[in-house]
Design goal:
By secondary structure, the protein is an alpha+beta fold. It is built from five helices and four strands, in the order E-H-E-H-E-E-H-H-H. It comes from Carboxylicivirga marina.
Length: 118
């Protein structure tokens, strides 16, 4: 298997204060296949001007919100690929509506923590 440089990996900017986001990022770091690794960066570390939605940057392409979530599932591999394929069947307008509903309620449902930078 060819080694992947960390500079070639996709970058995910996520909410480092969201309990769900921190748990999911921790899970993905632990369980992602070696050839499907991703650089995770809390957006609080970079800038508040990024906004508070999931942002994926890979090969000069930017994806946000629901589209970024689907790509993250696909990049994770394994059974998550099936979830990504199924999620792609959801029309983009509905997908983003669901994403933003979840995003608006994430602190209430999963709590808010101090930002974790590892």
């Amino acid at each position: 298997m060819k080694a992947v440089k960390t500079t070639d990996l996709p970058i995910i900017y996520y909410d480092g204060q969201c309990g769900f986001c921190l748990g999911f990022v921790s899970f993905l770091r632990k369980h992602s296949r070696a050839d499907r690794k991703v650089n995770f960066i809390p957006f609080q570390l970079v800038s508040r001007s990024i906004g508070d939605e999931l942002l994926l940057i890979h090969h000069s392409k930017t994806q946000m919100a629901g589209e970024a979530a689907i790509s993250l599932l696909y990049l994770t591999g394994g059974l998550w690929t099936i979830a990504a394929i199924l999620a792609k069947l959801i029309p983009k307008k509905i997908l983003n509506k669901l994403y933003y509903k979840f995003a608006r309620n994430r602190y209430r449902w999963f709590g808010k923590t101090a930002c974790n930078f590892n």
